[in-house]
């Protein structure tokens, strides 16, 4: 499997490096790279904050014509970082609400901005990583990409708008299959189910996504934005549903199932939900 790489800066319009997000705007194409490769680009509070700052900037920048969203290293995104600095129930709940709410605000930006978003799905993609993929307008997968929701294996519930968007992408029965069984989808099955638009050749996912973004960047940006708005208008209520997701996952994190699932994950054992 080809490794993800951050595009080289060649006389960029703007290029900045943050702690957990790499960002570059070059020739009307913005490259946003999740940058915690040591933990599979798992989304912690810092990354969520930086992603929201980046998405808000992109949404307001009329020079951006397309966005390429990728992950540094081997994996796109292993989901949300379930470690928590708080120990008491109130602190844990506040942390989960903060993390998911900020991530949700970034996802709304990607969904509502005029510029089409192309995601690059390589390596392992789980949980909130699949939510980011679903929020993108187009997605290119590497041939070895693996998709697994994993929420219920931790005794948790979906976030990132997945319980809203996933049934629309793959159908309710398939969405329930993925959420209840935590089965893993390979790249070709993800293509068949509608999670991605195409599967690139070995080592070519990044270049394929960049070529696709460059082609789209030549198109009518205002019309693209209007098209995105029309599709969004056909499924009202995403923001309200995301707020419900934040409350639900926070409550489930404090339920005995959520406590057992998270403890089992860190103790590297199978959870006992009985």
Model description:
- With 274 residues, this protein is an alpha/beta fold.
- It has a single domain (14-203, 221-267), classed as 2-enoyl-CoA Hydratase, Chain A, domain 1 (Alpha-Beta Complex), CATH 3.90.226.10.
- It is 47% helix and 15% strand.
- The protein contains 10 helices and 10 strands.
- A 7-stranded mixed sheet has the order 1-2-3-4-5-7-10, sandwiched between helices.
- The longest helix is centred in the middle third of the chain and has 24 residues, at 89-112.
- The termini are far apart.
- Residues 1-17 have low confidence and may be disordered.
CATH architecture: Alpha-Beta Complex
CATH superfamily: 2-enoyl-CoA Hydratase, Chain A, domain 1
Mean pLDDT over the residues: 91
Indicate the CATH topology: 2-enoyl-CoA Hydratase, Chain A, domain 1
Helical content stands at 40-55%
Task: Summarize this entry quickly.
The chain is α/β, with parallel strands linked by helices and 274 residues long. Helix content is 47%, strand content 15%. The protein starts with 13 loop residues before the first strand and ends in a 7-residue tail after the last helix.
């Amino acid at each position: 499997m080809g490794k993800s790489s951050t595009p080289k800066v060649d006389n960029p319009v703007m290029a900045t490096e943050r702690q957990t997000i790499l960002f570059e705007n070059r020739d009307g194409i913005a490259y946003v790279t999740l940058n915690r490769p040591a933990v599979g680009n798992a989304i912690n509070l810092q990354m969520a904050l930086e992603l929201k700052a980046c998405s808000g900037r992109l949404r307001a920048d009329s020079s951006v014509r397309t966005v390429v969203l990728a992950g540094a290293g081997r994996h796109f995104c292993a989901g949300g970082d379930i470690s928590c600095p708080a120990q008491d129930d109130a602190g844990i709940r506040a942390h989960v609400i903060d993390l998911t709410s900020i991530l949700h605000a970034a996802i709304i930006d990607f969904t509502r901005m005029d510029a089409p978003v192309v995601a690059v799905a390589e390596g392992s993609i789980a949980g909130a990583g699949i939510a980011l993929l679903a929020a993108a307008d187009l997605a290119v997968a590497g041939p070895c990409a693996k998709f697994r929701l994993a929420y219920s294996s931790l005794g948790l519930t979906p976030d990132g708008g997945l319980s809203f968007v996933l049934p629309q992408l793959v159908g309710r029965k398939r969405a329930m299959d993925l959420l209840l069984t935590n089965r893993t989808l390979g790249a070709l099955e993800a293509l068949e189910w509608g999670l991605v638009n195409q599967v690139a050749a070995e080592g070519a996912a990044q270049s394929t996504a960049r070529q696709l973004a460059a082609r789209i960047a030549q198109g009518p940006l205002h019309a693209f934005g209007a098209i995105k708005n029309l599709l969004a208008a056909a499924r009202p209520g995403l923001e309200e549903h995301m707020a419900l997701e934040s409350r639900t996952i926070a409550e489930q994190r404090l339920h005995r199932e959520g406590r057992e699932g998270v403890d089992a994950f860190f103790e590297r054992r199978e959870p006992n939900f009985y």
